[in-house]
Amino acid sequence: MFVRFTAPDRVPTVVNASQVSYVSEVEGGTRIRFGEGRSVTVVEPLDEVFERLNRTQQLPME
Fold it and tell me: Is the pTM of this model over 0.70?
């Protein structure tokens, strides 16, 4: 399932929740990390990002 966020340059960014490895708080928002070192930074706070991703029930469970 896809979740829409906002990049720091205010461009809409859509993330595939099943591809997320982990999220971390960074200055000005949250960094969402995927496999192979890819990442995207969004302006939404960490708690909101986690809640929205978790709501999809698509996050990888290890």
Answer: yes
